[in-house]
Amino acid sequence: MITEALMAILDPSVLFFMLVGVVVGAIIGALPGLSVVMAISILTPITFGLEPAQGLAMLMGVYNSGVWAGGISAILVNTPGTPASIMTVLDGYAMTKRGEAGLALGINVIYSAIGGLISTVFLMFAAFPIARFALRFGPAEYFALALFGLSMIIGISEKSVLKGIMMGCLGFLMATVGLDSMYAYPRYTFGVVDLLQGISYVPVMIGLFGFGEVLAQVYENKKSERIVEHRKIGRIIPTFKMFKDLAPMTTLAALISVIIGAIPGAGGDIASIICWDQGRKISKDRENYGKGSAEGLAVTCTANNGIIGGAMTTMLTLGIPGDGVTAVLIGSLMMYGMQPGPMMFIENQSFVYQLMIMMIVANLMFLVFGLLTSKAAANILNIKEQYVWVGIVILSIVGSYAINNSVFDVIIMFVCGVLGFILKQFDFPLPPIILGLILGPMAESNLRRALALSSGDYLIFVGSPISIVLLVLTALALIGPVLMKKRKQQTES
Fold first, then answer.
1. Where is the DUF112 domain (predicted)?
2. Of 250, 254, 320, 252, whose CA–CA distance to 119 is shortest?
3. Distance (Å, rounded) from C-alpha 360 to C-alpha 343?
4. Which helix (H) or strand (E) holds 186?
5. How many percent of the chain have pLDDT more than 70?
6. Is the pTM of the predicted complex or chain greater than 0.70?
7. Which residue from 253, 334, 248, 340 is spatially nearest to 300, judged by alpha carbons?
8. pLDDT in tens, 149-205
């Protein structure tokens, strides 16, 4: 099985599309304001005409490369390209001002790849045991799991939990449009035939994260500092002694970030902040953290990509996204006919093995690509915004239409784009909408199935240890942030 998966990945066409994904991810990740979520959202429908292995290879290339490339602008112009690279600016830009831009870029790509590879090893060893355990789930357990996943709306709600919950409810309401899952009764279609099949999540996520982002940037008319001063790049690859000195802290950061990534709702920004802060507390070089420390930079870069394996483990085995990107990837896998969850490890083992090997190849590919293009990396930041905007709009229209060859999906994309723009102006988080749209049907259908099996007895939801644990975790996820906020207020007062 593993040999067959390896041969499938080494197919020249698969490697080509992965390389395309790596290049696209590098460009989008390096441009401030654009995100990996947006890149995967607009590229997913374009891959619909490809073989599953080819399409997923492109998306894996974008995912892994985009997270790493966010550090390029953070290092060169003190502006994080992605949220995961928010801590990279502290030591990376300080190294650039010190004349060590090349070394900073080299550390960024090398340790991002190391973090990604370590997290992929975790995925390979942990995914199948977790999936086997999840096979014990029935309708009640799946409902509790979906509820737990929906509670992660709080974790991805950015500044306001209340706004995040509102957006999650909006996504849940959108999921109810169409034919009822139990009796095929039309709901909220208002006589529109195109709504009988429901609102597809693909044009919604393209509109929110693609077209909506373009509208926001045009409205704000950003004058971003993308003209990079021509500095001496210098040495790119660290010395052997530096590798040796950095090994203990970066290994620790990789292990911590894998665990953080496996927690639904956590992301690269959280992992990089925690790992950098912990490194500063226990490092011998703690005085230089934030002042151009190579170790501080290596730690945060390791954490950036280190969360990917953990997030993918949670997404693949339980069908719950570990971060915003995996929330979109769930939709991508469903488009390929793969339902994330324990059954995928039984019915599509070969595909799972292919995905794991893709993760390894993608990390190695962006490592080589990043080292070869480090000296030319600054040129990515000089691409005119207008060209980027036009390209994204075209891809958004084509991608929305390509799913069902439907103009109605394009209309949905435009409507969601305008909606996303308006919501963004009022600081409403957008990922909870996708989470509610994807997990809403899972929660509803399993709730009704469980009640049908128990003849309306709600005690079925506390009838097994698994569902009880999941419900307790849901309660903790909902109450925990409130208690932490109160404790922080008491401490400050």
1. 15-435
2. 254
3. 23
4. strand 186-187
5. 86
6. no
7. 253
8. 777 676 556 567 788 888 888 988 998 898 887 778 888 888 888 888 888 877 887
Nearest to 65 by CA among 13, 20, 11, 8: 20
DSSP classification of residue 210: I
Label residue 455 left, alpha or beta by phi (over 0 means left) and psi (-120 to 50 means alpha). Answer: left
Locate all alpha helices (DSSP H) within 135-264, ordered by sequence. 139-151, 161-175, 201-206, 212-220, 240-262
What are the CA-CA distances from residue 431 to residues 1, 93, 156, 328 (Å)?
Answer: 35, 29, 7, 9
Note the pLDDT tens digit of each residue in 194-235. 888 888 877 887 788 778 878 887 887 654 444 444 455 667
> Under a CB-based contact definition with an 8 Å cutoff, are residues 313 and 340 in contact?
no
The yes-or-no verdict on residue 122 having pLDDT over 50 is yes
**Residue 366 near residue 108, CB atoms below 8 Å:** no
Distance CA 190, CA 475 (A): 36
Quick one: pLDDT at residue 87?
Answer: 78
Nearest to 337 by CA among 46, 51, 60, 126: 51
Q: From CA 310, how far away is CA 322, in angstroms rounded?
A: 7
